Structure formats: C-alpha cells, structure tokens
Amino acid sequence: MDRCRALSDQFLRIRAQSLKLAEGLSAEDCQLQSMADASPVKWHLAHSTWFFETFVLAAVDTAYQPVDPAYRELFNSYYVGIGARAPRAERGLMSRPSLDQVLAYRKTIEARLLAALAQGSLDAEMLDRIELGLHHEQQHQELIVTDLKHHLSRNPLYPVYPVYRAEAQATTESPLQWISFAAGVQAIGHAGAGFAFDNEMPRHRVFAEAFALASRLVSNAEYQAFIDDGGYKRPELWLSDGWDALQAGAWQAPLYWFDDGSHYTPAGRQPRVAAVPVCHLSYYEADAFARWAEARLPTEAEWEIAAQLADRAALTQMTGERWQWTHSAYLPYPGFQPATGAVGEYNGKFMINQMVLRGGSWATPPGHVRSSYRNFFPPATRWQFSGIRLARSI
Hints:
This protein has helices at about 1-20, 25-30, 40-60, 70-75, 100-120, 125-155, 220-230, 240-250, 285-290, 300-310; strands at about 180, 185-190, 205-210, 210-215, 260-265, 270, 325-330, 355-360, 375, 385, 390-394. It is an alpha+beta fold. It folds into two domains: about 1-155, Four Helix Bundle (Hemerythrin (Met), subunit A) (Up-down Bundle), CATH 1.20.120; about 180-394, paralog of FGE (formylglycine-generating enzyme) (Alpha-Beta Complex), CATH 3.90.1580. It has a four-stranded mixed sheet. The chain has a three-stranded antiparallel sheet with strand order 1-4-11, with helices on one face. It has a two-stranded antiparallel sheet with strand order 2-3.
C-alpha cells in the first residue's frame, strides 16, 4: 500500500502539471498542428490519458467499459499491437472530441485509476506500468512545449505562450575549456534503484579511447561566427544527407532565428543573447559546426562517462539546458530485451535511422533526466531544444 499511496501522489502531481501547461491557451491554440512531427496540445492531453486507460485499466479488467470506444483509435500513437490509429499528420483535424470532452476524459480516467490504486488490487506489473505511464506523460509535457512553440511560430503575430517558465538567460560567456578523460573501460546504462526506460538497460561495459569534452555548450555567438564564415554555404563541412537537407529546407540559421538578431521564443519574438547556448539545431548542423570548429560530437558513451566521472564545476550545462546531439546512432544495448506485448513497442522498434541526444533541456520536466537517459530523433530534427557540446580525441 505504501507504493500505491506514493504512486497516487505522483500521479496527481504529474497530471496536474500537464493541465498547468495548457493554462491560458484557447481551444483553438490546443487544436493547432503545424507539421506532422508536432501534435496538438489537445492530442497530447488525450493520448497520455489513453495510455493509462489502455495499458492499465483495460488490461486488468476483461469487462472494462471504455469512456468512448472511438478513443482507442483516435489517441493511439504508434502501438500497432493495439489496433488502428488515426494518421499522425491529421491529428490537427480532430475537432471532435472537443477540448472540454478531452478534459472530462482525463478526469474520468484519473478517478478510475486512483480508485484502483486505493483498492490495492493492482499487482507489481501494473504498478510498474503506472510508473512508466507517468514518465511517458512527462515526455509529453516536454512535447507540449516544443510542439506548441512550433505551432505558434507559424503565426506572424508571434504569440506568447503564457505559462511555461522563462528560460534562464546567461549574460556572460565562460571561456571554453577542454576536460580530459583517460582511455579505459567504463560501465554505462542504468543501474540501481529508481525508474529507467528499457532502452537505458542493461548496464554494460564499453571501452573509450582518451577524449576531451568541452566544458560548456556552444553559444549563440560562436554559432553566429560559423554562419558569418559561410558555414551554410560550404559543402565540405556537411555530411551528404545534411547538405541535401540544408538545400531542401533552405536552411541559413537555426530554426526560429531572424536576420535582425532576434528569435522566436515562448515569450514571443525576442533579441538573441550572445552567451546563451545555441538551440534548435539538427544533428547535421551540429556535426557541420563541430567540423568547422576542428572538433567533433561526442559519442553517447563518452557523454555518459563524462557525466559520471567529471567534476560538475568543471563540466557545466550537462543537464537542463539543451539536448546535446551525440555521434551515436540509436541502437539497442547488448542484451536489450523489449517488454512483451504492445507496451514493448515503446522504444525498441525505433532503433533505426535516428541519433541519440543526451542531457535534457530547459523544457524537460525537473527530475525527469538521468545520466543514462537516451533521447533520440532523426538527424534532420530541429524543433526540439537541441544544441551542441564539442568533443575531441586526444
């Protein structure tokens, strides 16, 4: 019962935060979908509820009556084992159910789940499933912020997103130093108590040659120097796929930058601050900048080794500022086994054609990121809060 009570408290806290992110938004704001990769706020609120209904409540009761049978298809994301799914690119067309109906759906499922926890009838597997669902909802909280920023950026009024806390603004840029790590065998991956996603396991040994990691992230000013030196016009700096993406997207600067020195932020259009870490870069841009800077991107193993071993006073901005692209493809760790059933589709089936990012961003919910946490996106992705930490071989 102690775990049930703790999960109930955590459930209420995390669910309330999701609604807080929607405060001040109109139903029209919550309906927006600016591109296929970015979902409407309303859909995020519904899908994170669908997870608990589908994978917990319906899983433990063969006579379970859904709130609405149509929701099983409407709010399924990518779980093929569950059944049909509405097309991802058309989520913005779902004017029905209304936002009010989605909010009512959330309340109903919350009441049912809290009642199940209070009864103490859920086994350890289902309690683990609830914990997974809570971390899943935190992932969607971050997506609400990143997706809504993209949605609102398409409006020439450049609206302010009224709720999310303002990003801290550095005013001075500390000198970049190189923090060295000796060659050797180290263990990476999640170990010990506490939650982790299945893709963070099992913990295993890796050998890393000697390397150095930059003491901080690349700043707006440093990235502007890359642009001023013709960085977006020099194919020798770019991977072939990256150059093709640059040409197809007419990239000339990070996403949301304007030629007048401003950029779009959740606080509206604002002047760029030179010392702030650069943001909204694809893997291709991060890789091209690293090559221009006579460095490279770290591997995910190097990043995690550094996070475990380095003095945090020497190695700054590791977490909570920018997701940091690594040079590592998103692949399973040795011995990785996905869970059985549809919930096993959570991570494993995406282990192809994506690159790993580490460290979390200012939009990541507090306490959600660990040194073993693996985020992953296709290399052309730009709408996430992603930046650059440089590495060198020594």
